[in-house]
Write a structure and sequence with these properties.
Blueprint lengths: L1 H19 L6 H8 L8 H9 L4 H29 L3 H29 L2 H20 L4 H28 L6 H30 L3 H23 L23
């Protein structure tokens, strides 16, 4: 039944896309893109994006933050069963609680935060907050403490997922936004392949605290990286490109 419910929600989402999302490309742009060859899996485009000073740090942040957070998401039911002795229903209530918190952050709080603070600072703070929160999750002794620990986790996840996509869309030219966000989503999907394997192995071999420590260590290592590339020495602004040819500069000839 959960699988059928998820399929139904996905179908409703598909209908909503057709009804409410307008086409952003002009007919001329769509015709131009149709005649271009597209690779199904373009690893070269990913490598080039990772080397770009404005885009690369954001994609690395997406991958490692996603790896840490996906470990929590995918291992949480096993963690809840073996550490806190929770059944399926209790676990679903806690995950619903996290989902509501993320909705509140992305639906209401994010507007206030982005109007007061730059996206770069929100990304850095989210990485640091998630690192310490996962450390707290690793050593949670009971459900009340867990509910408190999950609050900053939901806040950091909601803020970073929104601000990271926004920052990526501003780090490239308009015609590159779709491809860049696609690469970002692909990296996040890759974390959901790695995290269940790594988290399950850690939980089995080292205990219920290991997945949280794994995620926390990843983000502790990521924090200096994002501080360096987003705050201390950020990349220069994206240079403007003129779509029209510039007129030739007249040359003064002296006799």
């Amino acid at each position: 039944m959960p699988a059928f419910a998820a399929a139904g929600l996905a179908f409703l989402n598909l209908i909503a896309v057709f009804i409410w999302l307008p086409e952003s490309l002009t007919e001329a742009k769509r015709a131009d893109l149709t005649h271009r060859a597209h690779a199904i899996l373009d690893l070269q485009a990913l490598q080039e994006s990772l080397r770009r000073p404005r885009v690369g740090p954001l994609l690395y942040t997406r991958f490692f933050f996603g790896l840490a957070f996906a470990t929590l998401e995918t291992i949480f039911p096993l963690y809840a069963e073996y550490r806190l002795d929770l059944n399926e229903q209790s676990t679903s209530y806690i995950l619903a609680y996290v989902g509501v918190l993320i909705v509140l952050v992305q639906g209401f709080a994010i507007h206030r935060l982005t109007t007061r603070f730059h996206e770069r600072y929100l990304i850095v703070v989210s990485v640091i907050a998630m690192a310490f929160s996962l450390l707290g999750w690793a050593y949670t002794p009971n459900v009340p403490v867990l509910l408190v620990v999950l609050m900053p986790i939901a806040l950091a996840a909601g803020v970073l997922n929104t601000t990271l996509n926004s920052a990526l869309s501003k780090a490239v030219y308009p015609e590159e936004v779709g491809g860049t966000l696609g690469l970002s989503a692909s990296l996040e999907s890759l974390t959901r392949v790695i995290s269940p394997l790594a988290g399950g192995l850690l939980l089995q071999r080292l205990g219920t605290s290991a997945p949280g420590l794994f995620g926390a260590l990843i983000l502790i290592g990521l924090a200096p990286f994002v501080w360096r590339w987003l705050i201390a020495k950020p990349a220069p602004p994206l240079p403007e490109r003129s779509l029209e040819p510039r007129p030739a500069t007249p040359v003064e000839v002296k006799s």
